[in-house]
Amino acid sequence: MEKNKLYNQTIAFSGICQAITIIQNIAINGTYEEDDLIKTLRSILVTHPSSIDDVYKISDLNIGLNTVVNGFDDPKYAKDLFRYLVSVLQIEKKISRNSNLLQQIGNRVSQINKKNELNQLEIGENISDFASIYSDLISNIQPRIQIIGKPENLKQIDNQKRIRALLLAAIRNTILWKQSGGNRFTILFRRNQIIKQAKEYLKSPTNI
């Protein structure tokens, strides 16, 4: 696999895994780190990157890189991770085939970017807007993504918004993954290459 292609796929796949891992933490434990949440959601607003480095720095993806390296070792965790990955890939595929839906999502994201520029909003203030995009345009696409967690965590309105916003980020990163040549067969047959790269990035001096 080409070096740049492997780099792009590792970063994009780590972005997907990061969004999913934060969702699992919220759903199961009711916890999340604000900084990690914001770094993940920021990827939604970068709509025309010249390279994947415009979307993420390696240091933005500690959770995602660790999930890539360690998340497939625990059979139970790996089963849930694969389930979310397959669901997100299925949803992204249907969205990408619907040009009208893609345009609607793009328009809504552009509105958020304009609102941020006018009002100097922080990314954390966009969670409700991201959640609304998911609820209005994506949530009814079949098969719907089923979130597994504790009812007391899933019933909280703010957690519901965070999870929907993160699902939107996971789909956004899946688009990056597909644009870099990734697919479900890459996960099955080239995962070891991606894991090796993720390990190197976690040790990298740039990961600060």
Walk me through the structure.
The chain is globular, with a radius of gyration of 16 Å. The chain has helices at 3-29, 34-45, 62-70, 75-96, 99-119, 127-138, 151-154, 157-179, 184-189, 191-203. It is 72% helix and 0% strand. The protein is mainly α and 208 residues long. The longest helix has 27 residues, at 3-29. The protein is built from 10 helices and no strands. Helix 1 (3-29) packs across helix 2.
Calculate the terminal CA-CA distance, rounded to whole Å: 27 Å
Strand fraction band? Answer: under 5%
State the shape.
globular
Helix content: over 70%
Q: How many H/I helical runs?
A: 10
- The helix-and-strand class reads mainly alpha
Give unreliable regions as ranges: none
**What's the gyration radius in Å?**
16 Å
Query: Could you tell me the number of beta strands?
Result: 0
Helix and strand pattern: HHHHHHHHHH
Mean pLDDT: 92
How would a crystallographer describe the biggest sheet? none
In short:
The chain is mainly alpha-helical.
Highlighted features:
208 residues; mainly alpha; 72% helix
Secondary-structure blueprint of this entry?
Layout: H1 3-29, H2 34-45, H3 62-70, H4 75-96, H5 99-119, H6 127-138, H7 151-154, H8 157-179, H9 184-189, H10 191-203
Helix pairs in contact: 1-2, 1-3, 1-8, 1-10, 2-8, 3-10, 4-8, 5-6, 6-8
